[in-house]
Design goal:
Elements: E1 5-8, E2 12-17, E3 22-27, E4 33-36, H1 38-49, E5 51-52, H2 53-64, H3 68-84, E6 88-90, H4 96-103
Antiparallel strand pairs: 1-5, 1-6, 2-3, 3-4
Helix pairs in contact: 2-3
Length: 112
C-alpha cells in the first residue's frame, strides 16, 4: 500500500522566516491567521512541496530527538488540525483509500 503524500493547499499562505521561527499561517479564503511555533514551521515548510507522514515524522525525530511513535502522533495531530481547516490536499490519485491508514483521519472535502 502506497503512503499518502500531503501538500498545503494553495489558499494557505505562509508568511515570515522559517529559519527565524517567526512564521504565520494565513487562510487566504477566510483571512484567519495563526502564529506558528518552530515545530509547526518545520512541518508547514515541508508541506509546501508535499510530504508523507513518515517523512514529516523523521524530520521531527532528527530535529528534536523525538521517539518515532511520539513524532508520528504529533504529525497525525497536526495533519488532523490542517484537515479540519481544509488546509491540506492529498497528491496521490489513489491516496484517499490509504489516507485513513496513514493518518487515522477521514479526508475533508473542500472546494479549493
Amino acid at each position: 500500500m502506497k503512503a499518502s503524500t500531503f501538500r498545503l493547499r494553495s489558499h494557505m499562505i505562509l508568511e515570515g522566516d522559517v529559519d527565524g521561527e517567526e512564521l504565520i499561517l494565513i487562510d487566504g479564503h477566510s483571512g484567519a491567521m495563526c502564529a506558528c511555533n518552530s515545530t509547526a514551521a518545520v512541518l508547514l515548510e515541508r508541506l509546501r512541496e508535499g510530504a508523507r507522514c513518515d517523512e514529516l515524522a523523521a524530520d521531527l525525530c532528527e530535529r528534536y530527538g523525538l521517539e518515532t511513535d511520539v513524532a508520528r502522533r504529533d504529525v497525525r495531530d497536526f495533519l488532523d488540525g490542517l484537515s479540519a481547516l481544509a488546509g491540506i490536499e492529498i497528491l496521490d490519485a489513489s491516496a484517499e483509500s490509504t489516507f485513513a491508514a496513514d493518518t487515522g483521519l477521514v479526508p475533508t472535502r473542500s472546494a479549493a
